Each structure stands twice: as structure tokens, then as C-alpha cells.
Amino acid sequence: MQDIMTRFERRAPAGSDLPVLISPSISGQSLLSGLAQFRDPIETALHMVGGVLLRGFEVPSVDAFQQFAAGFGHPLLKYEFASTPRSAVSSSGIYTSTEYPAHQHIPLHNEQAYTREWPMKIWFHCVTASPEGGETPIADSRAIYRRMPVTIRERFAPGILYVRNYGEFDVPWQTVFNTADRGEVEAFCQRAGIRWEWKDDDELRTTQLCQAVEKHPVTGDMVWFNQAHLFHVSNLQAEVRESLEDLVGVENLPRNTYYADGSPIPDAVFDEVRAVLDAETVSFRWQEGDVLMLDNMLAAHARAPFKGPRKVVVAMAEPHGNLGRF
């Protein structure tokens, strides 16, 4: 693989090789034509390093990106049991990246690690690079696991309890479950091991125990794999948190996380977790046409605030999970 790997400008912790950069062997080569040539090196790099940046290829359309992602042999997935707002770009599994306001930072996370089933592969395609900010930082989930204090790893090992209250302060349940039919919601929850409770005013509360750490099914490596820090109340701005707690009470917050036994997780624990995530962050500037492919268990991703236009689209594939564990 050495002949197709080159260095590029990035900010990364010492010793990190994330992501591997692969560029075309000839100028003007299309991403699709490079699939047959580079597929094996990409798959190898994914397991070794966790992520690959394909830069310098011609990607004439979102459809071409979709065909490239689908070319790895797995049907592209729909975005189900959502935690953030996204829009479908096409009917064939291409979505916008999370539609949070441009000034907001989206912390590192592995896609759908707040569930018991998740995609193993995720692709990002930069259609329009923001003139300022807008990076998609990434991090090695194996390195995060190793750096995480042992006391936190052990306390989290039994799992993380996610509690969500859908309503006016978060994504509506009709959007999360892609249906307005209560029966369909309940059937989904039953399959996924989610406890549900219908509340007044057609509102819904769900509770699910999910993994905090996982073993990669191919490499056998242990990875830090949860979104506890995103769902925990400490992720809110202080004034927003105070207002919500006063308005609805702690038990009715839009989302929160607890230890597996239901006991509260102190804010200080997540101060340590976030410090580890920060220390393992890798960041680079997008270039238009870039495609970033990640093993979703081996590499986490984030989004930096930005100004000006930015368009990054996403595809996911190869479902994997542990529905029967908990």
C-alpha cells in the first residue's frame, strides 16, 4: 500500500496514522473507476488504521458517491432511530450530515453507538467545503479505550442506560421512528430491546441499556463505543440545562444517560471522558470532492463549527450489533 499512501496536513496526536490518504494513480481518475484498484487497500487500511481519506479523485455527483459506497457490497442503510435531524438526499441511502446550526460543535461519537445495532461502515463526501471551519474531526476508538482511565472503563463496562423524552424540546418521536403509528413504534422497540412509555399529550419516553465498550468483530480490539457524553445532561449549555431542569424536571429532560444500574453519572466523569476524546482528536481541512471512509467501530467522528456554505453528505452500510446481549 505504500505507493498510494502520502502525507497531508492535519492535526493529530503523536503516533496516529489516522486517516490513511489514498490519491489517484493518474490525474483525473474517477472515484468509481478507482474502486476496483483500491478496494483491497482500503479494506486493509480500515482495519489497520480505522479510516481512509480519498482525495484528488473526480466525484462528479452525489450519485457517483452513492455508487462508490454501494460498491463495497452492502446495501446502504436508512437512518433509523435517529438522534439528530438529517434529510434524505436520495432514496438510495444518502443523507445530509447532522443539521445542527453552523455555530454548534458536534462532539466525537461513533454513529448510532447509542443503540444495540449500528453500521460498520460510514462514508462522508464533501460536496462543498466551508471557507472557514467545518472540519469533520475523527479519532481512534482503540486509542480512546486505552487512554480512558481504568476506573471509568470498569464502571461503564456493564453498559450505559439511555433515557429519551421525545417532544417539543427534542426530535419528535414521529421523526425518530419514521412513523406516526404507535403500533409500529412499539414493534420497533420490542425488536430493539427498548422499553417505552406513552405519556400525556402524545409524548413518549424510551429507555435502553446499550454497550459502553465493544470488541471489534474482525480485529478483536476493544473500543470505546457509546454516546453517553452526548446524551448526558452535562452536554447542554449551563443556562439551557438549568432552564430545562426547572421547566420539566430531571426525569423529563429530553435525553440523559445513567450507569447500567440507573444511578446518576457525575458531571466530573464526563469531564475526564471529554479530555480523553480531545487528546485523541485528528483534524484536517476538507477539500471539495473528498471522500472519508471510516470503520464506524474503530473511528469516531465529529463536526467543527463553520461559516459560509458547507455540504457534506453521508452513507452507511453493513449493520452489526448485539441485540441479544442485554
From TrEMBL:
It holds the Pfam family TauD. InterPro entries: AlphaKG_dependent_hydroxylases, TauD-like_sf, TauD/TfdA-like. Keywords: Antibiotic biosynthesis, Oxidoreductase. Its cofactor is Fe(2+). Residues 37-315 form the TauD/TfdA-like domain. The keyword Transcription does not apply. The keyword Cell membrane does not apply. PANTHER family: GAMMA-BUTYROBETAINE HYDROXYLASE-RELATED, TAUD_TFDA-LIKE DOMAIN-CONTAINING PROTEIN. This is TauD/TfdA-like domain-containing protein. It comes from Cupriavidus pampae. The lineage of its organism: Bacteria, Pseudomonadati, Pseudomonadota, Betaproteobacteria, Burkholderiales.
